[in-house]
Amino acid sequence: MAAARKYGTVISYDLNYRPSLWKANGGKAACQEVNRRLAQYVDVMIGNEEDFTAGLGLAVEGVDANLSALPIDGFKRMIERAVAEYPNFKVCATTLRTVKSASVNDWSAICWYDGAFHQAMEMKDLAIYDRVGGGDSFASGLIYGFLTFDDAAQAVRYGCAHGALAMTTPGDTSMASKAEVERVVGGGNARVVR
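Below the sequence we write its predicted structure tokens.
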């Protein structure tokens, strides 16, 4: 990351906290130590509520263990704290998932860019086939949106749409086409058309 920063490369980082991966390596305290050291090099920081809490020590106010409600203002305050602590963050984004059951979630996302927040469309009662890969697909859609449109509002919509579509198919690799993502961005539902 230091070498990339030296040459002006834009650095994105997905906090992606997994307790099982850190268990044998110092747990949450070691995770935070590593992520705080790396965060100083990051331009685009991505994660969900658990990632920011466990990975950087930035809790989201008003979120319970069951994720039964997602207070958008709590997420915004958490992101504002992150940006204040790491002024090198040019973009900070998080998915918003309200878990109703293993197979039904509400899904959205927010993105902070240039002092303003942008929220993606809210997808109520999204039918989940396989959650694995939803966050990675959100990240790739967000990055695609910034690279293609240089527009934070459009980027977070592409991320949200791609993440939703990934969760409607099996496995952790997105099977969604660009046309399918664009259909969801345009207001279509998040079911893959085959």
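The longest strand covers residues 91-101.
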